[in-house]
Structures are given as structure tokens and as C-alpha cells.
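# nightly structure sweep
# worker-07 picked up a monomer target from the shared queue
# config: single-sequence mode, recycle default, output format = C-alpha cells
# input follows
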Amino acid sequence: MTSSRPARRFDWNNLGMRAASAAVLIPAVLGSIFLGPVFLVVIAISVALLAFEWGAMSTARVRGGAAAFLTIFVLAALFAAYLHNFLLAWTLVGLGAFAAAWFAYFMTERPGDAAFGVVYIAAPCLALTWLRAMPNPIGWTILLFAITWSADIFAYVAGNTLKGPKLWPSLSPNKTWSGLVGGLAGAMVVAMAVAEGAKWVAWRWDISTIRLGLLAAALIGLAGGVATMAGDLCESMLKRRFGVKDSGDLIPGHGGLLDRVDGLLFAVLAVAGARMIYQSGWAQ
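# output follows
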């Protein structure tokens, strides 16, 4: 008689790593928001690390050259955005994608992957820089990170506790529908909590901050949660395409920086989009 497979134990170590990454990254970014040069340095270091990881995954034979192309153009675009010249910034992203594709083509690597890497890394960096340039950057940055990490952590807890049908087994065998629902619910609840907390802060200290109704906050949380999950799945798809388990080995036993911020790369675009709608007068 064949014995049944023992139930998988809850991985507290993995959950701890997710919480620890949030505890480290959130204060670092929030602190840098106050100091312009520090913000630029933090994002620039992140770009360099992400560029190297992308080069190692997508163009392994010429990883150094590919990473250099990507880093130079993304940092140039980032600096232009930091100076509030977003038209030039996006132009540089387009030029960088073309240059990376050209380099990969002549090195007999896949030019499409090289070009995509530029946009994949540059777009979220420019979105985050734009959020910083807008009014109330601290409140919106807190909202962004709260949504991203609550979606990630709630999805992990719900998926490992409730289990159930797999979300997309051929792409990411560990993700479940229960995890998806838990992550989205967590992102919405936390977004509403941040919105209410911001109102209390504004009343208590008479300062300007984000002013969102509960419905608006819930919708932004939902959009950010969906984007976080999409970013996670997208990275799983990319790693499967390139035949790697992790994006790098920056964090021993837990992969690279891209493995830690895959959801954030998509979530910042969703929250920046919500910020644009907010500027038009919605939910104020």
C-alpha cells in the first residue's frame, strides 16, 4: 500500500524573508524621497543590479556588455526624469531599447529580449521618479509599498494555508486561486487603512497628504494588487523562458533583486496611473 504524501509544512522562513525585504526596502525608499540625491543614488544602484541580473538571464554570453548598455540608457533616462524632463526620459528609453537590440543582434543573442529588458526596468523607475515629483510623494509612496507587500504577503499566507486549485500550474506551480484572492483582498484592505491613516495624520498635524475615499482606496488597492500578481507571474514566465530558477544570487537562498521586486515593477505603474486619474479630480 502506497503511503500518502505528507502535507507541505508552512514555510515560515520564506514568509520571514518577504517581510524582511519589505522592512528594509520601504524605509530606504521613503527616506530617500526626502533627499533628492539619495533617491537618485538608491534608484541608480537598483538599476545597475537589475541590469546585471537581466543580462545574466537573457544574454548570458555577453552579460557584461548587455548590462552596460541597459544601465547607461536607463540611468540617463532616470536622470532626465529626475530633472522633470519626462519627454527626454522616454525618448532615451526608446533609444536604449534600440541600442540594446542592435548590440544583441550583432552578438548573435536575442535582440527582442535585450530591448524588452530596457523597458522592463526603465518604465517602473520613471514611474517612481514621477510619483516623487508630484505633490504628497510620501503618502503615495507609502500607499504603493503597502499595496505591493500586503498583496505579496497575504497571497503567500492564504495560498499556503487554504491551498486549493492551482492558478497557472504550467507557469508557476506553487500559486493558487486562494492565494490570488487573499492577496487582492489584503491589498484592498491595507490600501483603505493607509487612506484612513493619512486622513488622521492630516487632521492631527494639519499637513497635506493623500485624501482618498474608501472606495477609491479599495479600487487603487485592487489595481495595485492585480499588477503585483501580474508582475510575479511575468517574472516566472521570463525565468522559464531563460531556463533559470532565480534571477540572481544577491540574497543567498532567495534569489536576486528582481525576485524581490518583480511585483513592485508592475505595481508602481498601476499606482502611477491611479495618481494621474486622481490629478484629474477623481476621488478627491
